[in-house]
Amino acid sequence: MDTLLLILAATVLGVIGQLLLKHGMGGMGPLSVSLVGVPKIVWQIATSPFVVGGLLMYVIGTFFWLITLSRLDLSFAYPFVSLNQVLVFIASWLVLHEEVNPLRALGMFVICIGILLVARS
Length: 121
Known about the structure:
121 residues; mainly alpha
């Protein structure tokens, strides 16, 4: 598999994982951590199919990332992790209907420029 496809696979799986985690945790409502309540929270998290699915996506994405690290210098590969931020930003807007403000969008644009500069080096 092409190395850039490995990076893309790891990135997309990470984004899917984040969306699943957010959906699963959002369904639980705001959680409060207390010494007495921790076991209940752990049980809720461990039995949520969306949270478990999100974590599974991370595990599979990590597999592709490890293959990537066996092929590339870390200083070249790691900046591509920023793609996660950009794709989560876009997916949060499109899928979760989260609000996007111009300053946040500009920040994502700057991250994209940085990724392009690294990719061309």
